[in-house]
Specification:
By secondary structure, the protein is an alpha/beta fold. The chain is about 30% helix and about 20% strand. α16 packs across α19.
Length: about 800
């Protein structure tokens, strides 16, 4: 393009996460450094830049643009066009431009950055101990945005009018807070205050109805130290907090929230506090300290004084570090320096580990507004730590695990790396949503409704899939209302008008009924997608597999509606984005009472015993766990096939084994029996039970269906129980057996097809012990294994698979 000093012009359009992340000031400072003139602006489609300057300096600018971007930015694409130079005399940031129907990705909320954290505790800084400190590198994004472009009038900060000092920072390109939309300070920004709940007894000190700012946080600390429960407004909703080392406080929180055994998450003051209670690997440390700040599932140390009631019957706990300035201030231990002596309460030590569970009634969405919290949480909390920055989008905490997967032989031949890291999501929400997933092809606009449990929905545009934050279990009107409101918001935010609707085949799912009803009203084509096909397709997208890819899909979970209208869940498929072939599955078993059996693993265990021809021996835990009348009813149901839907579910097999070994006869949250069975497993045990794959002719007799015979496994387990083998050994042998079973199935399919790629998806693969054993066996046998790393392996990732499958079916 001519001589290096020749004056040229350049237009650049940037797409990706480039708004609300300090991208325009970065461009301004870059242009200034290279003595370039022109302008930069936000648009609804991304960021536009126009430059005039010497060719060599513009080339340097382009190089820096691709290598030195702000930490929260993610440049997806640069469209560059050389043009005739314009006689600009300076470089400016000009007003944003709204473009009809244009869209752009939106940044998730990010934890407080090191610079803001340093200022937060700097006595000489004007934002010293201010709970809403932020800059372009941190703070709220998705939870406050109403529309794009991402400018202050399109956020919930619109009613907070900047003081002159904040306005100066906001307007100064070299400043870290230049065009930081949530910019605030004690003089002009949001405030905190403490309210006492009138329903939960007397607090130990006299208090007015509202106590504000640092004093409010100080008194909240005191209440927590005294065993009280405090509702705390955060980024995406309210938490209910109590001292995690106080068993009485944790027990009271469980009683009030009607949460019998399901684990609570804990926020710990810092990494050193987390290391006092948990084993933490380098990968887990990286996740804990990442800008997304998820809850990370960690192994609890035996000598930890975290109450066992936090995660009953488990050897792991979910831990997160503070991610907002308000959270850091909850652990600040020098308030006597700023609180006058006359206002101080008796000396206390602030807890360093706090239960931080979602602020909601059982199975309802997390509360977001102050009024909603007062109405719904007043009988759960003793006090409320409020603030007045509105939350536009509710967003629960994300949950992840760190899984270090050994490389396959295939990968080792390509590189010398010993292993590759995989972040294994359990719940994708705050810090990750609504960051897009890149699709292997451009799709028509699709709305995918998701599943019943752990719901997310997905909308697509071009080669982006926007998966919603965690919606939750679709079990009540409140969650459905939140679901519908969020669909409308996402479609407006990303300018998407779906031309295809995808839904799960299960006829009773609220999400599916919503999708079908919407299709009937609008006339948009609706495509039903088989549950486990969607699981495997989601894993394929998650790993960037091309449209022509074909894999061995091993989908294992609790419930998924099958093509034969039975309940599937232990499936081996030949899978592509277009179609699937069911090659092998667990033999069908009856579920006496349907959903009632899912809540009572003892009922499932009796069905497995009955199917295997094993007597209901009075020495067996599931027999002991049910009374004579209930056993009689179950026996009649099984013999006469009354309300006994058939299932091939691996999740139900885990339930049965947990019951037979005496681990759990009744559950009060999803997968409890399987989780507790895994927790007792003896890692030193290498024995396993025999496996048997049989062929069963189909009704038309044209081909044989391959089945996994579980009767032989159950018979062996019953023998071990009656011989008083420890449950920890039985658990280990069972886990080893399922890993062997997966390997055997994949071997059989590879011989048939020469396919060497295996995708593992479904809720059962949240069992990290089983996952580790299975991946090791598959790797040693030369399989290339694909796991989830951006969306959950459970039903939280299902909508992604639904979207791409439905789009292909209409191609």
């Amino acid at each position: 393009m001519g001589q290096s000093n020749e004056k040229v012009g350049l237009k650049i359009h940037v797409t990706g996460i480039v708004q609300g992340v300090g991208f325009r000031p970065f461009i301004y400072n870059l242009a200034t450094r290279y003595q370039l003139y022109g302008w930069v602006r936000n648009t609804s489609a991304g960021v536009d830049i126009e430059l005039t300057g010497s060719h060599s300096l513009i080339e340097m600018f382009l190089n820096s643009l691709q290598t030195d971007i702000p930490p929260l930015a993610d440049v997806e694409r640069l469209d560059v066009k050389w043009v005739e130079p314009v006689d600009y005399t300076d470089f400016k940031i000009i007003h944003s431009q709204a473009i009809p129907d244009a869209f752009q990705p939106v940044s998730p909320d990010m934890s407080i950055c090191p610079d803001c954290l340093r200022e937060l505790f700097d006595k000489n800084d004007r934002r010293y101990l201010y709970p809403f400190i932020n800059c372009t590198n941190c703070g709220p994004r998705f939870t406050i945005i109403k529309d794009i472009p991402y400018d202050r009038p399109n956020t919930t900060m619109v009613d907070f009018h900047m003081c002159e000092t904040c306005k100066s920072e906001y307007g100064s390109p070299p400043d870290r807070r230049f065009h930081a939309q949530p910019i605030a300070c004690p003089d002009c920004g949001p405030t905190t205050w403490l309210e006492i709940s009138p329903f939960n007894g007397k607090i130990d000190f006299n208090l007015n109805d509202q106590v504000r700012n640092n004093y409010a946080i100080y008194l909240a600390q005191y209440l927590l130290s005294q065993g009280k429960i405090v509702a705390i407004k955060g980024l995406g909703g309210f938490h209910l907090a109590c001292d995690a080392t106080n068993p009485l406080a944790v027990a009271e929180l469980r009683r009030r929230k009607l949460r019998v055994d399901k684990p609570f998450a804990i926020m710990m003051s810092d990494l050193s506090e987390a290391e006092r209670h948990c084993e933490i690997s380098a990968d887990e440390r990286r996740l804990l300290e990442s800008q997304s700040r998820p809850i990370v599932i960690l192994k609890k140390l035996e000598y930890s004084n975290i109450s066992g009631l936090v995660a009953p019957n488990q050897n792991t706990i979910g831990v997160m570090l503070p991610y907002t300035p308000l959270h850091y201030l909850l652990f600040f231990d020098r308030y006597e320096e700023v609180i006058p002596a006359i206002d101080r309460v008796p000396a206390f030590t602030p807890p360093k580990s706090l239960v931080m569970t979602s602020g909601n009634l059982r199975e309802e969405p997390i509360a977001t507004s102050n009024e909603e919290a007062r109405q719904k949480l007043s009988k759960l909390a003793d006090a409320f730590l409020m603030h007045n920055r509105p939350i536009y989008n509710r967003c629960d905490d994300s949950v992840v695990r760190a899984f270090r997967m050994p490389d396959t032989k295939f990968i080792k031949e390509k590189s010398q790396k010993d292993e590759r890291k995989i972040n294994y999501p359990v719940r994708r929400s705050r810090g990750y949503a609504p960051f897009p997933i890149h699709l292997p092809t451009t799709l028509a606009p699709v709305f995918a409704a998701g599943a019943e449990l752990k719901n997310t929905f997905c909308i697509t545009r071009d080669n982006y899939a926007f998966i919603s934050h965690h919606i939750g279990d679709m079990e009540n009107y409140e969650t459905l209302a939140s679901y519908e409101a969020n669909i409308a918001h996402y479609e407006r935010l990303f300018r998407i008008n779906p031309s295809i609707i995808a839904y799960d085949l299960h006829p009773d799912y609220l999400a599916s009924r919503y999708a079908i009803n919407r299709a009937e009203i609008t006339g948009i084509p609706a495509i039903g997608v088989q549950h486990h096909h969607a699981h495997i397709a989601a894993c394929m997208v998650d790993n960037g597999l091309p449209m022509e890819a074909r894999v061995i899909g091993v989908a294992m979970d609790g419930t998924g509606f099958g093509d034969d209208q039975q309940i599937w869940g232990g499936e081996f498929f030949f899978t592509s984005y277009h179609s699937y072939e069911r090659y092998l599955h667990l033999a069908y078993m009856p579920l006496p009472g349907g959903d009632a059996a899912i809540r009572k693993p003892a009922r499932i265990a009796l069905a497995y015993l009955w199917k295997a021809g094993i007597e209901w021996d009075d020495r067996l835990p599931p027999v002991i766990g049910l009374n004579t009348e209930e056993r009689s009813i179950i026996h009649t149901q099984l013999e006469k096939k009354i309300n006994t839907p058939m299932t091939s579910s691996m999740g139900r097999l885990f339930d049965a084994v947990a019951s037979i070994t005496g681990v759990r006869q009744e559950v009060n949250y999803e997968a409890q029996a399987a989780i507790e069975l895994e927790a007792i497993m003896d890692w030193g045990e290498n024995a396993r039970y025999p496996i048997e794959i049989i062929e069963e002719p189909t009704d038309d007799g044209r081909f044989a269906s391959k089945l996994i015979n579980t009767n032989i496994i159950i018979k062996e387990i019953v023998g071990d129980v009656l011989n008083n083998l420890p449950p920890s050994i039985i658990s280990a042998k069972f886990h080893n057996t399922i890993a062997d079973l997966v390997l055997a199935g994949c071997h059989s399919m590879r011989k048939t097809s020469d396919i060497n790629q295996v995708a593992l998806s479904g809720g059962v693969w949240q069992n990290m012990s089983l996952l580790e054993k299975t991946v090791e066996l598959l790797n040693k046998s030369g399989f290339v294994v694909y796991l989830h790393h951006s969306v959950p392996t459970n039903d939280g990732g299902l909508s992604l698979g639904q979207a791409i499958i439905a789009a292909q079916k209409l191609c």
